[in-house]
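User: Just a sanity check before I run the rest of the batch. Below are the C-alpha cells for the first item. I only need the designed sequence back.
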C-alpha cells in the first residue's frame, strides 16, 4: 500500500490500478483517495462502471477520448468479474492505453492467472488489501483518536477491538461514537467503551461466562435474558456457550504447560485479549468441569434439534446448573 500512498501523495500516477482483497473499508478509502487525487471535483473526465454487464466497447471508446481541459481521464470499474472470466478484450486493450487515461479497478475476488490480472500488473499496480492484523488496526485506531485529541491505553484499545471486532468500517463508527461521547475528556476509558459501543455476541457471552465462573446465577440469567430480548436465537447462544467451554478447555490445557497469553493466543488462533479472558475464566473451573460443560452443551443442542427439549428451557437449564453454587 506504500506505493499507492506515494502515488497519491506525489500525484505520479500509473495507467492502471487494481484494488482487491477482503478489507472493504480500506479498498473504499483508497478508491476515494485516488479519485480525489486524479479527478478532484471534475466529473466530465470521470467514467464510473459497476457490475458484470458492462459494454467493453463503450469503456474502450471512453478510454480513447482525450480528456477535456484536464490532465487525465479516469475510468473506475467495480465488481466487474473480468478478473475471473470474460476480460480478454479489455486485457488486450490494456497494452495500448493512452498516457492520458487511467483505469481503476476495484474487485473482491480475482484470479491471478487471468489475462486481466496480468494486463493490469504489466500496465500499472496491483494492491491486494486483506484483513489487517490486530496490531495494524490498533495503530490505525490510535491515529484516529490522536487526531481528535484523545488518548487510549493499550489495554483499552485491545478491549475495544475485542468488543466490536476487527471490521474496520464497524470499528470506525464505534470510534466516532466514543469521540463524541467523551467530548470533554482526554482519555478514553473502559467505562466509555462499555457505555456506547455495541459489543459482538462473543463478548456478551464472555460476560455471561464470567458470571458463571464466579457462580453468580442472577447475573448469568440476566445476561441471557438481555440477549433474548435483543432477538438473539437461543440456539446461537448455545453454540457460543459450547464454543466458550471449548476455548476455556484449550486455554487451561495450554496454560498448564507453561504457555503465556501470547503463546496461548497464537496456538488457539484467537486475539490476545480473548486468550487472556479464557485463561482468567478457566481458573475458576476444573478440567473435569470444563469437559462436562462442553459435553452437556453438545448434548443439549442434540436434544433440542431432535425435538425432545424446548430451546429456551434447554439453554436456561444449562445456565442454571453451571452457575449454581455447590
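Assistant: Here's the designed sequence for the first item:
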Amino acid at each position: 500500500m506504500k506505493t499507492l500512498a506515494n502515488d497519491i501523495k506525489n500525484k505520479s500516477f500509473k495507467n492502471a490500478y487494481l484494488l482487491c482483497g477482503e478489507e472493504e473499508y480500506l479498498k473504499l478509502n483508497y478508491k476515494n483517495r485516488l479519485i480525489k487525487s486524479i479527478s478532484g471535483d471534475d466529473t466530465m473526465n470521470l467514467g464510473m462502471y459497476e457490475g458484470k454487464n458492462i459494454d467493453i466497447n463503450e469503456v474502450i471508446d471512453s478510454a480513447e477520448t482525450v480528456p477535456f481541459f484536464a490532465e487525465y481521464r479516469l475510468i473506475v470499474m467495480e465488481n466487474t468479474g473480468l478478473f475471473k472470466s470474460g476480460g480478454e478484450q479489455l486485457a488486450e486493450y490494456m497494452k495500448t492505453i493512452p498516457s492520458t487515461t487511467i483505469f481503476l479497478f476495484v474487485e473482491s475476488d480475482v484470479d491471478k492467472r487471468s489475462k486481466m490480472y496480468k494486463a493490469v500488473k504489466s500496465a500499472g499496480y496491483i494492491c491486494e488489501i486483506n484483513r489487517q492484523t490486530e496490531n495494524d488496526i490498533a495503530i490505525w485506531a490510535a491515529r484516529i483518536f490522536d487526531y481528535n485529541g484523545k488518548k487510549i491505553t493499550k489495554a483499552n484499545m485491545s478491549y475495544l477491538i475485542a468488543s466490536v471486532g476487527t471490521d474496520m468500517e464497524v470499528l470506525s463508527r464505534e470510534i466516532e461514537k466514543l469521540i463524541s461521547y467523551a467530548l470533554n475528556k482526554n482519555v478514553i476509558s473502559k467505562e466509555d467503551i462499555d457505555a456506547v459501543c455495541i459489543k459482538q455476541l462473543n463478548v456478551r457471552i464472555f460476560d455471561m461466562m464470567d458470571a458463571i465462573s464466579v457462580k453468580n446465577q442472577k447475573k448469568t440469567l440476566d445476561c441471557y435474558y438481555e440477549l433474548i430480548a435483543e432477538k438473539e436465537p437461543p440456539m446461537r447462544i448455545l453454540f457460543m456457550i459450547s464454543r466458550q467451554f471449548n476455548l476455556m478447555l484449550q486455554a487451561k490445557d495450554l496454560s498448564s504447560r507453561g504457555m503465556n497469553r501470547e503463546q496461548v493466543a497464537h496456538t488457539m488462533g484467537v486475539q490476545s485479549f480473548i486468550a487472556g479472558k479464557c485463561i482468567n475464566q478457566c481458573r475458576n473451573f476444573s478440567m473435569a468441569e470444563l469437559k462436562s460443560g462442553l459435553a452437556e452443551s453438545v448434548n443439549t443442542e442434540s436434544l433440542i434439534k431432535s425435538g425432545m427439549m424446548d430451546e429456551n428451557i434447554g439453554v436456561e437449564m444449562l445456565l442454571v446448573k453451571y452457575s449454581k453454587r455447590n
